[in-house]
């Protein structure tokens, strides 16, 4: 029962990580305008994401425009797109596999593949969390390096957006869920199923030859060793010779 509760905890942590990863992938708030120097008070704010670029005006108007060309994007943005999409796909796969491998589901109940399925789901959650963590860490490093670049104008500097922080939280949730699932599945795998324990004999049956010794070989008595039936061609019958009566 405790193992089932631990598996449910790991599954819900991974599911929260999946939702956060998808939301952070779609949000445009990866980079926001840095208010430094003469840009302390501005009428517009710029935000850049993986799929679009948005502008917020002080009048309340919010405009977004999708990136039209994929090949015209910088290589770091293309890599970030690919890694986040892979993280989302891996999280979905992990959710399906771990749901089939948990003890509270009916799929393959009583079979030996339940624990390996749950462990596979946990490993997929770990991979998804690592992919998301690498992407947001890479973006954070680029933003910080550009912010402290003295040759870059103040109007072109950006700060870390909300989607990056959400990506960090999602990666931590996915990693935590994967670790919990792997740990619970490893503990359940060491215990054999109850029906396997009932059917298994307590001790192996004794060998037949250890109880019953083999019978000795048959040896005819010495008196009957040379006792052969008389033939018709012989001159004796029943041990008497004919010359005794002639």
TrEMBL record:
Localisation per UniProt entry: Cell junction, Tight junction; Cell membrane
Membrane topology qualifier: Multi-pass membrane protein
Record field: transmembrane: 79-97, 117-140, 160-183
MF-aspect GO terms: structural molecule activity
Main localisation: other
Pfam family, one: PMP22_Claudin
Cellular component annotations (GO), alphabetically ordered: bicellular tight junction; plasma membrane
Superkingdom of the source species: Eukaryota
UniProtKB keywords: Cell junction, Cell membrane, Membrane, Tight junction, Transmembrane, Transmembrane helix
Described purpose of this protein according to its UniProt entry: Claudins function as major constituents of the tight junction complexes that regulate the permeability of epithelia.
UniProt record similarity statement: Belongs to the claudin family.
Name listed for the protein in its UniProt record: Claudin
């Amino acid at each position: 029962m405790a193992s089932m509760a631990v598996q449910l905890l790991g599954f819900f942590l991974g599911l929260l990580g999946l939702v956060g990863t998808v939301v952070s992938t779609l949000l445009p708030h990866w980079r926001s305008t840095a208010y430094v120097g003469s840009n302390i008070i501005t009428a517009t704010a710029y935000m850049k994401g993986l799929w679009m670029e948005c502008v917020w005006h002080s009048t309340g108007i919010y405009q977004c425009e999708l990136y039209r060309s994929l090949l015209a994007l910088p290589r770091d943005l293309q890599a970030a797109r690919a890694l986040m999409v892979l993280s989302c796909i891996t999280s979905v796969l992990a959710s399906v596999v771990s749901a089939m491998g948990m003890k509270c589901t009916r799929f393959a109940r009583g079979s030996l593949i339940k624990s390996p399925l749950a462990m596979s789901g946990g490993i997929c959650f770990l991979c998804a969390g690592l992919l998301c963590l690498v992407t947001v860490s890479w973006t954070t490093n680029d933003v910080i390096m550009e912010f402290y670049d003295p040759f870059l104008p103040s109007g072109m500097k950006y700060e870390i957006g909300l989607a990056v922080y959400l990506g960090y939280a999602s990666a931590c949730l996915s990693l935590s869920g994967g670790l919990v699932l792997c740990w619970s599945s490893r503990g359940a795998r060491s215990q054999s199923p109850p029906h396997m324990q009932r059917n298994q004999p307590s001790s192996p049956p004794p060998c037949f030859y250890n109880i019953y010794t083999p019978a000795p070989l048959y040896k005819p008595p010495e008196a009957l060793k040379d006792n052969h039936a008389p033939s018709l061609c012989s001159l004796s019958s029943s041990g008497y010779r004919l010359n005794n009566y002639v």
